Give the backbone structure.
Amino acid sequence: MVAHSAHSHDAIGAPASASTTIGEQRFVVPGVTWKDYLVVRDVLDSPGIRMTYLEGMLELMSPSPAHEQSKKLIARLVEIFALERNVPLYGYGSTTFRREAAERGAEPDECWVRGGTLREMPDIALEVVMTSGGIDKLAVYAGLRVPEVWFYEGGAFRLFRLGADGYAPIDASVAVPELDFVLLTAYAGRTDQHEAVLEFRDRLRNAAGSTQ
């Protein structure tokens, strides 16, 4: 069972002018055209700035060290799992995804494709949430047609799967059904990346050995 936070997914992105936490800033600018979004993205092409665009609203976010540590640890855990379980999962980091017809653009914290090279959109997008407000990420990803979105907030994962009526919460990943999110959650909040990855790997290997 996936650990859920107390917030509904609609609360992930209620528009706000600015929100901050230690070392992290988030601003939403209204009235930005698609052309202007592309220009700003090219001018401010830096790993220190993440941009999200939704129908004229542009969010600029400068991630904190804690945010980056968290998303990187989750990525390392997911990818060591894929390696140990021989799951063909391909990571593409914070690649920018855009769809002009839908007026949407996003740069997930991490993203993956299962079973091959990157297509138009990833199979999974990960968002680490440390500040409230900003653009509704699910509305953005729905327009981009990303099948699955994982949010990590407050030490818990929330998973959403895209259907005919938009995103619905799910208790286990459809894209990576082998992944145990209870086990992943137990290590995702660790402060020592190296120790967390080693222990997680050992847990996976011990579990595999006990089934042989």
